[in-house]
Design brief:
- The structure is a single chain.
- Helix content is 62%, strand content 7%.
- With 317 residues, the chain is mainly alpha-helical.
- The protein has two domains: 191 residues, no CATH class; 98 residues, no CATH class.
- It has a three-stranded antiparallel beta sheet with strand order 6-5-7.
- It is elongated.
Length: 317
Amino acid sequence: MKLPRRISELLDRKEKFMLSSEISLNRNLRKMQSLLVSKITAEIIPQLDMSGGKIRNTLKNYRLLTSLDKVYTDFQKGQRIPFVNEVGKSVDGIVRLNTTYFEVMMGLETPEIFASVAESAARKISLRLGLEGGKIVNGGFFDTLTKNEALLLDLKQYTAQAVTGQIPTRDYIKGLNTIIGGDETKPGGIEKQFNRFAHDIYMQYDSAYSTALADEIGMKYFMYIGSLVKDSRDFSVDHAGTIFTREDAEKWRTWTPEKSEYPAGYQVKQRDTSAIPSYLSYAGYDPILDRGGYRCRHHLGWLNTSIAERMLKAQKK
């Protein structure tokens, strides 16, 4: 038995929305990289002590490392609010789509339930992300993420090497573009930092909100939802399209590839099939929130008891 058409359409719409939100965020990250290159070019290059188009090995140029630190910090502070605003907009969309899904799934028209659950889920995920009242908490996840100290260190190290090597200014600018903006073989410094987490931000919020609704309503069944691609993990290939209970999900903490059956012709990716994969065995892993681990592209479609039990019967045949 397949999911009812309307339910399937709503789940598909939510998956596409989260993907488009991630693409939009990545697009803005690339714009941020261009802005950072422009800011450093405008504020640092004119201060360089140069001769014959080359950067000189002078104390003045080494002192510019402090100026670079300030330029970067000012830039990073100015980009924090737009970033949080964009994430907030996408989160609002995820809430709306989940609300519609549960209204259709359960036949509910009780806005007070959704309002209270939305507030509870928002608090939970905000704490996890290091946000409070729409602002970034010092020392929290978002604070560390947006500061991106690794990129600043790369820029300062590269600038110091450029001064020592007395390279041409045009080569220095070219190198800045590669470090910040990336090239054909690697993403830029801001993209690289955020891409590790952008997808998880939306997926985990979706999990937190939909699970909070399922808790409120008393739902225990869900389907593991999402498309499979060439690099899908063994865990997701094994679980996709299958119905589980909350108790089943707890067993994921000790799942190993050898315990599973796969589609005909599928080659298991993990070498040691008796070991719990690293993407499930990290500290703090939560089966319901994290599903197939960090950067998992699947989500949970909560089902009412009637639909779930009919589908389970068909699933066992």
